[in-house]
Fold this protein.
Amino acid sequence: MENIEKVFNLINKKRDEMIALQKDLSAIPALAPQNGGDGEWEKSKKLLEWLDNMGISDVELINVPDERVSSGRRPNIIATIPGKSESRTFWIMTHLDIVPPGDIKLWQTDPYKVIKKGDRLYGRGVEDNQQSMVASLFAASSILEADIVPAYTVKLLFVSDEETGSEYGINYLLRNHNLFRQRDLILVPDGGNPEGSMIEIAEKSILWLQFRTIGRQCHASMPEHGINAFVAGSDLVLRLNKLNQEYSIKNPIFNPPISTFTPTKKEANVPNVNTIPGDDVFYLDCRILPSINLDDVLQRFNEIIEDVEQKYGVEVSFSVIQRSSSPPTPGDTPLVQSLKIALKTVYGISGNEMGIGGGTVAAHLRKRGFETVVWSKIDETAHQPNEYCIIDNMIGDSKVMAKIMAGR
Ligand SMILES: [Zn+2]
């Protein structure tokens, strides 16, 4: 029997243990203080117990001080399995924290008591992000048990605070510790699709803006005495919404493959029908292909604004509420290639490089020049009531990770 087949058989045999670990993890709600919780400390202790029992002994704990939680710290754990080569490290990063269950009436079971129904486990955190956390742990322990030395050193990274900004998790580690090297392989199994074919390597840049148009308020029966900010703002919003025609380049890895400039929130203006509003405020959510320079886009906004100001005699200003961009991970990066081979072996499918609309934790790593791949086989029930994990996905993903660890 080929070595990797031995590992796959071991993983198959650990189905019940994997379910038991899921139960243990969900039983300890790891909520951030701003979500009314006490952090990840208790959950991390449970994880450390499991690591110990699995014979994974090289474990480092990086605690980030946080006075808002009773332990005073937010834990980040690195478990290391030495490989044949030190030249790269294969990282698998998963997060300890969860989001609150939301309206409890929408749950059919207790969110903190994992229930198995058919081939699924139900409970808060079982998919986001424990499916991958458990998969990575059993991939590593099965490799060890099969006496296989991984091709590269494997590091399982379990972080805090992913759901509420990562300031006590990956952002802290990136600022204060030199954990990663440019050549490392970094997998963030915290996104994907039900087929398992989506290999996320890029995200669009995000620009959120507020536009304010100032005219002059007056009685609606004498419109010529005022300047209608609503009318000018409406012209402006239509021009901005059409910018995708100007920035028309396409990138087929994204869906939609274009940049989008979408008007969203609108603030209320006057409370009565017979007043012409002198103040108009709306918001724009832009998702822009990474190849487009955001400063150029902002400059274009200024030109359009000048046009509208001249046409209507209004004053327009805008402020940037959020701006973020990160360089895409190249599709030919070694981790994408290894992942594709593993997907063929385990699931019999071809993986596709894809981009998404933005806002994931991988962007923190990509911004600092670390090539990062997001992948998992999930039904995308994260943050929903009745969150579930398909047990076969947890087992399959564990094999995919083990296959990448083992190398060719
Ligand atoms: Zn997540």
The pocket of zinc ion is lined by residues 95, 128-129, 162, 190, 382 (CB under 6 Å). The chain has eleven helices and 17 strands. The two ends are 15 Å apart (CA to CA).
